[in-house]
Hints:
- By secondary structure, the protein is an alpha+beta fold.
- The chain has one domain.
- It has five helices and eight strands, in the order H-H-H-E-E-E-E-E-E-H-E-E-H.
- It starts with 7 loop residues before the first helix and ends with a helix.
- About 25% of the residues are buried.
- The mean pLDDT is about 90.
- It binds iron/sulfur cluster.
- Iron/sulfur cluster binds near residues 62 and 76.
Amino acid sequence: xxxxxxxxxxxxxxxxxxxxxxxxxxxxxxxxxxxxxxxxxxxxxxxxxxxxxxxxxxxxxxxxxxxxxxxxxxxxxxxxxxxxxxxxxxxxxxxxxxxxxxxxxxxxxxxxxxxxxxxxxxxxxxxxxxxx
Length: 132
Ligand code: SF4
């Protein structure tokens, strides 16, 4: 699947707004990939009341955010790779997260290019949730 490369503060890993109080959902593939890096599932992940697996926060930051840097950036979860393109389950549509200071760099065309992959990813999350 595609991943965004926004440059600037994001590529320098100095922003990390999206990694604070994260609510990022994880696919089973994400979890398996991160476990293979040597991390324990219960340390970085939990299942919410709706049955979705999500990244765990530690003192307000994603478990993997250390000194404002993602410790698994190359292998970060697929949802983090899509960010700041997000999917609103209530509205059933993709959009840009207004918390991200770089959304002005993303064109409508880029948003459309990622929509199909993001919807596919979300459908998979919903399937995995109902299977769990
Ligand atoms: S996994 Fe990395 S990129 Fe994703 S929220 Fe956590 S620190 Fe940020």
